[in-house]
Amino acid sequence: MKTHLTQSISRHALYLCVIMSKAHIHTYDICSLVMDKPASEDILVARFTDYLAAHPDIRFPHRHSFYHLAFFTGGRGSHTIDFERFPVAPGQLYFMVPGQVHSWFFEGRTEGYVVNMAAGFFNAFLQDAGYVERFPFFSGVSAEGVVTLPEEAQPGIVALFEEMLVEMDGTEAYSHDMLRLLMLEMFVKVSRETRNGDVPQEPPHNYVLLRNFRKLVEQHYMQLRLPKEYAALLYVTPNYLNAFCRHMLGKSAGEIIRDRVLLEAKRLLINVDISISTIAYQLSFADNSYFTKFFKKYEGVTPEEFRKSIS
């Protein structure tokens, strides 16, 4: 059972902190983690130590309704994103999109920076509302959202974060616009640093098609399970879509759809208050038996066994 703790964070705003239990994954909105900023804020930049001190319960599994970024400059531990575990090390950037489940465990003091950014933060600044989604680390795939910067590139990114912290005070005119500029500069520099110069770049339309396919899967994976259904929405043939996905991601279109269904199943299974049959229904399986067979075929364990392993 969740316990709700109402806490005053400033004379400007009140927010609701939720102390999480193992039985439930809480979704935080950006206003609940503002750290003494007004509840209308749509951006937060903070030092990681200050952020953890203000919100100790966010070490437990949770998800956000906003974009979340962590940059580690010191310390060690582990960070789990959508059931994939990554060892924490200095120089790492973690980019997370709304809805991803994550938790972390640190050994000793961990230093760095954290950014919480509303989905519409750039909407009033850029004509293309989907511009941020073009960066590969915002794909929503856990491994693609973890970036290790070369040592020589780290001081420049640290400097950008320090500038962002200054602008967070909001004492200068156009502070939010400057934050947007600094954020975009950081995104571009990180993308440049992590591109493999030895690998030929794909034509731009390939990235557009991949992004559109992933967005369609995110929107319709509970109802549409066949590659031909997505191919029709993208105006390509099923064979082309499968070949394209194998070329870009090393997986068929069917595997990408299946992986998204499995991910949501695992997210739902964490909540022990939801029955297996209810999860099967939510994911549009004909019955509990079919869902169990599907899950065991691709995960190697039944839903019940998976649930016990993470409890």
UniProtKB/TrEMBL annotation:
Recorded GO MF terms: DNA-binding transcription factor activity; sequence-specific DNA binding
InterPro entries: AraC-bd (IPR003313), Homeodomain-like_sf (IPR009057), HTH-like (IPR037923), HTH_AraC (IPR018060), RmlC-like_jellyroll (IPR014710), Tscrpt_reg_AraC-type_HTH (IPR020449)
Start and end residues of each HTH araC/xylS-type domain: 211-309
Pfam (any one): HTH_18
UniProt entry tagged with the keyword Transcription: yes
Keyword annotations of the record: DNA-binding, Transcription, Transcription regulation
Name by which UniProt lists this protein: AraC-type DNA-binding protein
Organism: Chitinophaga eiseniae
